[in-house]
Predict the structure.
Amino acid sequence: MDQTLRSRIEVALDSIRPYLEADGGNVKIVELTEDMVLRLELLGACGTCPMSTMTLKAGVEEAVNGRFLRLHA
């Protein structure tokens, strides 16, 4: 993965990490595919939380998409 792109994704994830860490979790990048599919892993308490799907959709996905929409606007 391109380091500049990885850095941009990490900045986006950093905006949501304090909320994940407050609940005993975190998120890490697993891979970014050639067709721009970002695979993430929820860590710690977030990995087994029944709300993890909502966390990914409403929290992590919004943070990453919002950050990239602003960067590319």
Observations:
- The CA atoms of residues 51 and 57 lie 10 Å apart.
- The helical segments are 3-14, 17-22, 45-48, 52-72.
